[in-house]
Design a protein that fits this description.
single chain, about 200 residues, alpha+beta, 9 strands, elongated
């Protein structure tokens, strides 16, 4: 068995557990080599055969990788929100599968890889809440995803759906949403959300 085939089998062995996303440090452990030059030669061979690709600095992916996992590895202190969560909870319809937006503390970061985009929008520390860890990925609750969407819409971020008419808020827990809303310090934003909810007769 040549070394490339052997390395391919190793990647395939771990791909399911990692959902196709690897740190460079993971690959160093998975592909132990006599020296670092040999390791990078093996890595280049895998890249040449398109078995793995460099997604961003220090992060590699296989075919059919999980974009949410990639986002989480790009910034451990972040959570998936907006369209991905809204669609999963039937608040909106389907979403582009090659784009995901997340929330992090601090400045916005955007990553592009082939036809994939990860946008991580920045908030103040007091607004970094309202998410759960599911299978290693931080995911916003449906109520926080609604508020994140309205918050950034109010800041000029565009969405492909109409926030005034295209969201189905039937399954939103209004008690939870209002508890979350009480943590926002901007009274103009609070009023904006209240008016949006009135438009939905909630």
């Amino acid at each position: 068995m040549n070394s490339l085939v052997k390395d391919l089998k190793i990647i395939e062995k771990f791909r399911k557990d990692t959902r196709g996303v690897f740190f460079l440090s993971d690959l160093l452990v998975m592909l132990p080599s006599e020296n670092i030059d040999l390791f990078y030669r093996r890595l280049r061979n895998l890249e040449r055969e398109k078995i793995i690709k460099r997604f961003a600095r220090g992060i590699y992916v296989t075919e059919n990788f999980d974009l949410a996992v990639a986002s989480q590895k790009l910034c451990a202190d972040s959570y998936i929100s907006f369209e991905a969560v809204l669609a999963r909870n039937l608040v909106i319809g389907t979403v582009p599968k090659n784009t995901i937006r997340a929330v992090k503390i601090g400045k916005k970061r955007e990553y592009k890889f082939e036809n994939f985009t990860v946008s991580q929008l920045g908030v103040s520390k007091h607004l970094f809440f309202g998410f759960e860890n599911k299978d290693g990925v931080n995911i916003a609750t449906r109520e926080k995803a609604v508020l994140d969407t309205l918050y950034f819409y109010n800041k000029g971020v565009t969405f492909y759906f109409d926030i005034y008419s295209d969201m189905n808020l039937e399954f939103i827990d209004m008690k939870v949403l209002n508890e979350y809303l009480a943590r926002y310090k901007n009274p103009k934003f609070v009023k904006f959300v209240e008016n949006i909810l009135k438009g939905y007769n909630l």
